[in-house]
Each structure stands twice: as C-alpha cells, then as structure tokens.
Design goal:
The chain is mostly helical and about 425 residues long. The protein is about 80% helix and about 0% strand. The protein is built from 18 helices and no strands. The protein is globular.
Length: about 425
C-alpha cells in the first residue's frame, strides 16, 4: 500500500502545473473570487437599469413600447456584434486586457447616459444618445464576460468547465438581483441621473479589482477561425438562444406589466428571478460536469417554460413572483448546460472565441426578441408576451435531445480532455 501511495504522490508532484490544478480543484474557488468580483461590480450597471430603463423611455421621454424594446434590445445587438471581437481579443491579447477594455467602455456608456439627460427636452435626440450609450454598454458586457470566462477556464481546466461557467454566471446574476431593487429605489428618489452616475462610476471601481490580477498568456498566437468555432457551437448556441427569450420577456416587460395592472413592487420579480437563479447555480451547479450538459439543459428548459406560463396566467402579483421563481430555477443551468457542450465541441486553443460565439446566440436572441415582444405587447397585450416566451423556450427541448444523441454527449468527468 505504501509504495503505490508514494508513487502516486510523486506522480502528482511531477505532473504539469495545469494537470495538478485539475487534480486539486479546491483552490480554484479562491482563484476565481477576484474574477467573480469584477463580474459582480461590472454587471451592477446592467442590473440597475433593467427595471428603470423602460420607465424612463416610456414615461419620461413619452416613447412607445416598441421603442422600449429597441432601447433594451440594442445593448444585446451591440454585444452580439462585439462577441467575436472580444473572444479573439481574449485569445490573442489576453483575458485580463479584455476585461480592462470592457470596463472602460462601460464607463463611457454612463457618460452617454448623462448626455442623454441633458437633451431630454428633445426626446428624439435624447433617445439617440441613449441608444449609443446602450451600444457601448453592450460592448462592455461582451468584453468583461468573455475575458472573465476565458480567465476562469484557463485557471480551472476542462474538467471544471461547467463549474467555472456556473460560478462566473452566479456573480453576474447576483449583480442583477441586487441591481433591480437598488436601481428602482434610486430612480424613485433621484431619477435616471442616478443610473447614469452609477454606470459611470462602478466600472472604474472594478478596474481596481482587475489591476492586481496576474496576466495569463494568450491561448492562441494566431487568430482562430471564426467559421470553424461558430460551426462547432451552433447547436448548443441555438438552444441557449431559445431559452433566453424568457429572460428577455421578464427583464424588459415585467415592470410595464405591473404598472399596467396597478401592482406594486415590480422589482420583487427581478430579485426573485435572480435569487432562485443563484440558488439553482449554488445547489445544482455541479450537475452539468457530472451528468452531462445537454441532459441538464433539457430539464431546465421545461422548468423555465412552466414558470413563464405561470406568469401569463397570473391573476395577482404574488403569482407573478412564483412564476419568476420557477423561471429562475429553470434558467439557472441552461447556460452552463449548453455552454459545457459548446466548450467541448470547440477547438481547445479558441476557448475565448468559443464562449464569445456561444454567447452571441444569446445576444442575437435578446436583440431580436425584445423589439418583437414589444410589437406583440402593443397588439395583444403585455400578458401575451409571457405566453409566447414560454412556447419559444420549449423549442430548446429538441435541441438538447439532439446534443444528447450526438458525439458531445458523454459523462463529462470521464471525457478526454480537449486540451
């Protein structure tokens, strides 16, 4: 017994550093903590605006629900267009640099929000400046999350890819959960100027967290093939896109639904959604690595669709909160589930580009869905938005089934390392 044990310890000591990190994942939590803090601070600027942007555009500027959808969706469209740039930048220039670029763009978006307020007496000019600010914010979000995920995947290794995606995403949703009530409170007391100031200041705070991080060497010396990576992640990306419509429905139209029906505390829906999302990540975040990303994504898509249908049927605000809670549980693992399949299918030297391309499907979904749902709300009522979202989310079920039948489906801890 003693001899094999000594041989095993010697083998571990002589193993390459990245293999030792995979064999002993416990320190990974501490290594990821600064990255999660950056994501948390950076995404507060998005969470702050979620419940108040529709109110500002619709009530203060006096623009239509379609324009509300445009203002929300343009951020995701900008993120979509910058995903491949952000992924290639992280792979070739380094993940830390990508986070710095993203935070700088976030601060610029806050300055444009302030400029929009200065010309609020002319709604057409104000909304134009605001939309430019939303474009900058979309680019900021793309660079920050792509850089954070690339850095985390490099630290955690392929055996912990699902956990890294889940934990970084947990920080993101904690920011959403905290941002909704804080953003509503600040808007009620100080107006949209408080959102603009916070959007300018918070990314600068996050830069102080990024500065001490150790720069990891880029994973690719040459630009990875975008076409090859996009083809590899297309199927899981489609599944992610379909499930993202439900998130877009709640984030963009829940506050208007509450205002239309005379209900109070719309921010509770955002907070409940985020809280149950985080709980799902914390309690079940290990399951994609253990039982397979496609299997988890399939189950979670069914749960999310049920929650959205409950919001559609809700006669009271309390039932909306329950529906948001169910939706949060379901949505919690569709991203790491489909994301784990995407990372497994992509070339090992292009992890940043793979996550950027995969997340681009989410941006495309939200960029199209928000204006489309705005049109549906204008013609069929705000409640119909959640019925349509539930039906669309169910479309992810056959996508997950296809991934289960394909070569990407396996018991992930036993899958040969892609690197």
């Amino acid at each position: 017994m003693a001899r094999p044990l000594r041989a095993d310890l010697r083998a571990r000591a002589e193993a390459p550093r990245h293999e030792r990190a995979e064999a002993t994942p416990a320190p990974m939590i501490g290594a990821l903590a600064p990255i999660m803090a950056v994501v948390l601070v950076a995404y507060l600027i998005i969470g702050l605006a979620m419940p108040v942007l529709p109110l500002y555009v619709h009530q203060q500027l006096g623009l239509s629900t379609f324009m509300v959808g445009i203002a929300a969706g343009v951020q995701f469209a900008a993120a979509l267009l910058s995903r491949f740039w952000a992924g290639t930048y992280a792979d070739t220039r380094g993940a830390k640099r990508a986070m710095v670029v993203g935070l700088s763009m976030g601060a610029a978006s806050g300055l444009l929000y302030l400029l929009s307020l200065r010309v609020a007496h002319t709604p057409s000019t104000s909304i134009l400046v605001l939309l430019i600010g939303r474009v900058f914010l979309g680019g900021a979000e793309s660079f920050v999350i792509t850089g954070a995920l690339s850095h985390g995947l490099a630290l955690g290794g392929p055996r912990n890819a699902g956990k890294v995606i889940a934990w970084v995403g947990t920080a993101l949703w904690a920011a959403y959960g905290a941002g909704a009530p804080v953003g509503t409170l600040l808007y009620d007391r100080f107006g949209f100027v408080s959102t603009a100031l916070a959007t300018t200041a918070l990314p600068l705070v996050a830069l102080l967290v990024v500065a001490p991080l150790r720069s990891l060497p880029p994973s690719a010396r040459e630009r990875p093939s975008i076409r090859r990576v996009l083809g590899a992640v297309a199927v899981p990306g489609l599944g992610m896109a379909l499930t993202a419509v439900g998130f877009g429905a709640i984030s963009t139209f829940a506050s208007l639904l509450f205002a239309e029906r005379g209900w109070d505390a719309a921010w509770v829906a955002f907070t409940v959604l985020s809280a149950t999302f985080i709980l799902g990540r914390v309690v079940f975040g290990h399951l994609p690595d253990r039982v397979g990303g496609a299997r988890i994504a399939l189950v979670c898509a069914l749960i999310e669709a049920a929650g959205l249908a409950l919001i559609w049927l809700a006669p009271t605000a309390a039932v909306v909160f329950v529906g948001a809670a169910v939706t949060g549980v379901g949505y919690s693992l569709v991203y790491p589930g489909f994301g784990l399949e995407a990372v497994s299918l992509a070339p090992p030297e292009a992890k940043g580009l793979a996550m950027g391309a995969f997340t681009a499907f989410l941006d495309l979904s939200l960029g199209i869905a928000s204006p489309a749902l705005g049109l549906i709300a204008g013609r069929a009522g705000l409640g119909s938005v959640f019925l349509v979202s539930s039906v669309v989310t169910l479309g992810a079920v056959p996508v997950a089934r296809r991934l289960q039948r394909g070569p990407a489906h396996a018991a992930h801890p036993m899958r040969p390392s892609p690197s």
